[in-house]
Specification:
Helix content: 25-40%
Number of strands: 13
Bound molecules: N-succinyl phenylglycine
Largest sheet: 7 strands, parallel
CATH architecture of the largest domain: Alpha-Beta Barrel
Number of domains: 2
Radius of gyration: 20 Å
Structural class: alpha/beta
Shape: globular
Strand content: 15-25%
Low-confidence stretches: none
CATH topology of the largest domain: TIM Barrel
Strand order of the largest sheet: 6-7-8-9-10-11-12
Order of helices and strands: EEEEHHHHEEHEHEHEHEHEHEHEH
Number of helices: 12
CATH class of the largest domain: Alpha Beta
């Protein structure tokens, strides 16, 4: 699907999004899952074709061998296979969607949502020039987004943050995301961000460098937030205990699914750590599920849950829109949305059916 504008981060520029969807059919009910893996293994080790392969080769046959399945069965059945959390999450999402649709329960009810709308933040990519950045940020503030996140990298950090604060003031939450682009040698440079009253700095260093983040957290006053490093409730608990994360970004795809995402939420709440829901440029399917997750009580910070038109001119489900800086939590059964057949067909590049009955 083409993006409204190219989205540049410290790991690359995306002009379109290749999306792997999983559909399960169970007794006449369908369920949809969205895999958040990117085309190339630049954000994490996963990538779309790798996800397709592991689903086809291992995960779907393992679930088929298990017989009757609920959403909660998916992770335990797949647990012996290492990693590939984004592929696992897509499958769990599809099975859980079918289960909830059949049971007439919404995603929010299942996860424990306590709000009927969530505050909407927006993630702003890297630009060639400051005026282009200011035009983009101005547009998002005008649209009503309640929190701005700026992508940063070495050479694009202090100046863009300063320019945004000078142009738009200190009256809104602002945060930065480095997607692992720095090392501990950059601590002094990152400490220069402290004067701009940022909500947090997200994943400045390598995903495996949790100890480094704990050290960096003692050298800067801006709160440290981890994204890439957090892949499970266990890694979340460890990062918090080490002092590497004062805040967590929770992305269901990165951690193997919405049920693990809820576990991380619970770990964080138990330790007094605020969380927010990350985004992976999802279609309205993943967006629907993320919005419901973001309505859990511990999600006290606005997430990267933007309106559909932040990324897509035409979404495959009816678009989510901003109302007073917020997005309504879907209330219909399951995800509460399903692809519009004609739109889905118009963007589909390939389809593969794996029939469990024949195995
Ligand atoms: O709002 O969906 C969104 C995008 C939010 O910036 C965003 N996501 O590192 O958090 C990230 C980043 C990302 C996008 C990561 C695409 C990987 C792929």
């Amino acid at each position: 699907m083409p993006l409204v504008t190219p989205f540049r981060t410290s790991f690359g520029t995306q002009a379109e999004r290749d999306i792997l969807l999983v559909k399960v059919m169970a007794g006449g009910v369908e369920g949809w899952g969205e895999c958040v893996a990117m085309n190339d293994p630049l954000y994490s080790s996963e990538y779309v074709d790798g996800a397709v392969d592991v689903l086809r080769r291992y995960f779907v046959p393992a679930l088929a061998a298990h017989g009757h399945l609920t959403g909660a069965d998916v992770a335990p059945v797949l647990a012996r296979f290492k990693g590939h959390r984004m592929a696992k999450a897509a499958l769990e999402m599809a099975v859980l969607d079918a289960e909830l649709r059949a049971a007439d329960r919404s995603w929010g009810e299942e996860l424990g949502a306590v709000r009927d709308r969530v505050p909407s933040g927006v993630s702003v990519g890297i630009f060639d020039t400051i005026p282009e950045l200011l035009a983009a940020v101005g547009g998002y503030l005008e649209a009503g987004y309640v929190r701005i996140k700026l992508k940063i990298e070495p050479g694009w950090d202090i100046e863009p943050v300063r320019a945004v604060r000078e142009a738009f003031g200190y009256g809104f939450p602002l945060q930065v995301d480095a997607n692992t682009a720095y090392t501990l040698d950059d601590a002094a440079q990152l400490a220069r961000l402290d004067e701009f009253d940022l909500l947090l700095i997200e994943q400045p260093m390598d995903e495996e460098d949790v100890l480094g983040h704990a050290k960096l957290a003692r050298l800067v006053t801006t709160p440290m937030c981890l994204d890439e490093s957090i892949v499970s409730a266990e890694t979340a608990a460890a990062a918090i205990e080490l002092g590497a994360a004062a805040i967590l970004n929770i992305k269901p795809g990165r951690v193997g699914g919405y049920l693990e995402a809820r576990r991380i939420h619970d770990v964080a709440v138990g330790r007094g750590v605020p969380v927010w829901c990350g985004g992976m440029v999802e279609t309205g399917l993943g967006r629907a599920a993320n919005i419901a997750l973001a309505a859990l009580p511990g999600f006290t910070l606005p997430g990267d849950v933007s309106a559909s038109d932040r990324f897509y001119r035409t979404d495959i489900v009816p678009p989510f829109v901003l109302e007073d800086g917020h997005i309504a939590v879907p209330t219909e059964p399951g995800l509460g949305v399903a692809p519009i057949p004609e739109v889905l067909r118009s963007v589909t590049t390939s389809v593969e059916w794996i029939s469990l009955a024949s195995r």
